[in-house]
Structures are given as C-alpha cells and as structure tokens.
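Item description
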Amino acid sequence: MLDRLRAIVGAQQVLTGGEATAYLTDWRKRFIGHAQAVVRPANVEEVAAVVRLCAQTRTPVVPQGGNTGLVGGATPDTAGQAVVMSLTRLNNIRSIDILNNTAIVEAGVVLQTLQERAREAGRLFPLSLAAQGSATIGGNLSTNAGGTQVLRYGNARELCLGLEVVTAEGEIWNGLTGLRKNNTGYDLRDIFIGAEGTLGVITAACMKLYPLPASSGTALIALHSVSQALRLLELSQGIAGPTLTGFELFNELCLSLVEKHFSPQKSPFEQRYPQYVLLELSNHEPEEQTRLLMERLLEAAFEEELVADAVLAQNTKQAQQLWALRENISEAQAAEGKNIKHDISVPISRISEFVSQTDALLQQHFPHVRMVTFGHLGDGNLHYNVSAASAETLQPPFEPSINKLSEAKIAQNAHEISRKTEEKLLLQQSAIYQLVHDQVHRFGGSISAEHGIGQLKREELPRYKSAVEMRLLQTIKNALDPQGIMNPGKML
C-alpha cells in the first residue's frame, strides 16, 4: 500500500512514523489517532488516484486541511488502517474574476491568503475567523464555517458558488461554476458543504468576492445584560441596515482572561461591566459618513439607556486593538486551562433567556464553574464554554503565619488546586454536555453552529434529530459512499 501511494504522490509526500505525528492529533489535543500514512497530494488528479486506490483496497480516507477543527473531524481513529489526506499542497488560487466577483481556489489555500489576494485585486473575501492564518478553504467549507461577518455576508455555504470534488469512487466532479442562478437539478454543492469529508473530498471551490468597503467603523460597547445587547442589535439593524457587518458579544470573564494572558491588551473602560459588544460598520460611503452613522447609532443607544459606556476607534490601529480583545478569547481560555466547549446556536430572540436559565442550572448542579460566553450575536451563534473555577476563588484565605510561605509555595498550592478543579470538571463533562444541549434543544437551537459534529458530538446527534432526519442523512451517506471509506466515524 505504501509503495503504491508513493508511486502516486512521490516518496517524500508519504509520511509515516514521527513525520506523521502532527497530522494525527486534533488542535485541542483531545483526539489522538493512528494511520498507515499521511499522504500529501499536489493536485486533484493525485487526490483522485489516491481515493481510487483506497476504494479498491477498502482503506479509510481522512481528509484534512489546516487541522484547526475543534471536534476531531479531521483526526483518524485508533485502528491504524486509515490514510490521512493532507490537502495543504493544493494551495493555488487558480483565478480571480473581477467582473464576476469570484475566485477559484484550491482546498489547501489558507483563508488569510485568499483574503490578502482578494484585497490586492481590489476585492473583499469576507469570511473571517480567529484561525484564519492556518485554517484552509477546504476545511472552512467542510464545516460550513461562520465567523465574525456572517451577519452581513453569511456562512461559508453562502459564500460558495461551486465546487470541485473527488467522489468516494475516485471520480472528479467539476462543478466550479461561477453562476449565481443555476436551477438544473439537485444542488450537489450544498450536499458536500458541511459534510466534514464524509461524502467526498473537496479539492477546489468558486468563492464569492465583494467590492472593498471605502470605510469602516468599530466600537466597543459596555452593557449590563444580554437582553440589552439584543435590543442594541435590533436598534443597530434599524439604523445601520446592511452596513452592520459585525456584532460580537462577550462577557466580563472573557475580557479578564485576555488581559491576563495577552498583556498589555486591556479594557479601554475604567469600570468593569457584565457584557460587551464589539460592533463594526462597513460602508461604501466616505469615512465621515460612516463615523456620523456610528455616532448616530451610539447616541440612540445612550438615549434608550441600553449602554453603560462606549469607545469608538479613531483609526485603524485602535480598531485592531479592539478586535484583538475579541479574537484572542479562545487562545486566552486555552492558556487558562482545560474547558468544556459548546458551539451552539439558538433563535436570536431567545438568547438572553437561554443564557440566564442555563447559567443558573449549571451553577445549581456544578458549583464553582465559570462561564466563558462569547459569540456572534447577530446570527445566534454562541461559544458557550464552561471553565473550571480559578484557584483564587477556591483557595482559602491565608492565615498570617501561612503568609510567610514563599511565593513559590503559594503558586504551587494554586497550581495544584487548579489541576484538581480541572480534573473534576472533566469528570463531569458528559453531564454538562447533556444539560447544555438539552437546554439548546428546548430553546429550538442547534448543538453545532459552525464547528461541525466530528467525533465529539457524533453520539449526541441522534438525541436531537428525529429518526426521519437521521435516516435521510444515512441514506445520503450510503448512496455517495457505499463502502463507508470517507472519513468513517465522523458525524454518523
């Protein structure tokens, strides 16, 4: 098998042993798998040849992009039979069509690279994620990624017009149409987007581009409640209309963690507040018009007593500093310690009720947990994460005699308390998942908004989807991957 793979992609592009290790673990180091080899094809023809070989030998294929996923969707199982297919060498931007506002890009193109190339051509590619420096377009499409500008531009699905896909039999489907209207049968594109590589391998895509905005405005707004944030969203949509590009919510703990782990980043406010909204407008009018629109919006918000304080970025550097407070939340939480992540969505109108009720239930059943809640309020997507209590809140006050302990000893005590608290939290993981997901379901939401199902939520899916829906999903899987070799054990 290894010799045949080497004949297809070249000996240097078939990795085994220590060379393959980095490809066998997910970003969070939660899932660790084994594989016969990691193959790194250079083009769609090599991808097709590898899949044909795997189909002939009934070898599982695990497609992988930037390996930044959070649910184990690109990690092989522990059987050691799979071939991991890294698509990072498929990194060409084949064409940019200015008049059609499209770009045809290969699956291994890094998201940030497409953003930069589009900007050089005078166009905007609006998909924006914290991991955009390493996440790839193929991975973005396979999980139907969202990000911070979904409110205006939509998820990855809405940004894609066509695909090139290698099927489970190793055939190449070229659907790289740049058409915005094409009503000629079943929408094959939408079947493969969000399928997490379980139906075929996305090798290229035709993505939408947009004219570059002439100006933008960014404000960080402090509030006392999530309900105020929802009213602010409604007000902002009424005043700013389609210029409202981003509306990101995060709580005080998120901000505190960023300040703690990403010094010298700090809050621009003198006081602390329960909630914050990072609001962005982008406009095709001059900068002065955007500023006036933002000022009008903030003035209306203050008149309604929706906001406690606000800071308006005066230039690009200040806007970047405000965005850094939001974009570093995930990394700051990881630096703080292990946590239980929930990538969920609920109807926007019910977010406040969901957060207040679910927070209360978690505190009732799992005392001392901390909620690291942030997300894209404008599309109902919350990263509703549960973290262990800090050592400072659990460690009893030191007696005067104990205060004489060295700082190293005190730090060691705090570290031990943190470790034990994290271990206790992870032992309660299944119960916490079920409580939160049951609440999501009760509020008419989804247990996965933009990260996919992967291995992490595979067993949860049948709890919240009807038997009819599960049968339909399995029917599609059986039809397009009858041997079950495409990313087995993910989603279904």
Observations:
- The radius of gyration is 24 Å.
